[in-house]
Design brief:
By secondary structure, the chain is mainly alpha-helical. Helices cover 67% and strands 0% of the residues. Helix 3 runs antiparallel to helix 4 and helix 4 crosses helix 5. The chain is elongated, with a radius of gyration of 27 Å. The chain starts with 11 loop residues before the first helix and ends in an 11-residue tail after the last helix.
């Protein structure tokens, strides 16, 4: 479903509550690690399609302890598979939230840029009649001169 306009605010107290909630989540996951680029490349991939295979191998190891050598810890494998499965659920929920946040930021950025383009066009026109606005226009104009972009067209009103 599309949206017409986003008109919302996050209070300072709510923003702090959100940050606190995220920090609380981190405290529940003290084992999280950060891999380097090289470490990421060296890791075996295991995505959603791996879940059944991992669970089936774990079941096979648990049901056939006589063929599993002592240096393969079925207890640790059980913990690994359970944690991997739980983190898969957490990751999915976080990814959905992150996607929604990014989409909202993108839409808000467009709304803000449209408003800014209108202000820019108005200041540009007014600076021709009012010399006191010339420094304001020159400051705003830097954004486009710096990036080598063309001056924005005034967006159509929706």
């Amino acid at each position: 479903m599309g949206y017409a306009n986003i008109s919302a605010e996050i209070s300072d107290a709510d923003l702090q509550s959100i940050k606190d909630a995220l920090a609380a989540i981190r405290t529940k996951l003290p084992f999280l690690i950060t891999l380097t680029k090289a470490e990421r490349k060296s890791q075996r991939r295991s995505g959603p399609k791996s879940r059944g295979f991992l669970e089936n191998c774990l079941t096979a190891a648990q049901n056939n302890p006589n063929v599993i050598p002592a240096d393969v810890s079925v207890v640790e494998m059980t913990k690994d598979v359970r944690l991997w499965t739980a983190l898969d659920e957490v990751s999915s929920a976080i990814a959905q939230l992150a996607s929604d946040v990014q989409d909202t930021r993108m839409a808000l950025g467009t709304e803000a840029q449209n408003g800014a383009s209108q202000v820019y066009a108005l200041i540009k026109a007014a600076s021709q009649r009012s010399p006191g606005l010339k420094p304001v226009y020159e400051e705003l104009r830097k954004r486009y001169a710096r990036n080598g972009q063309k001056t924005p067209a005034t967006p159509a009103k929706v």
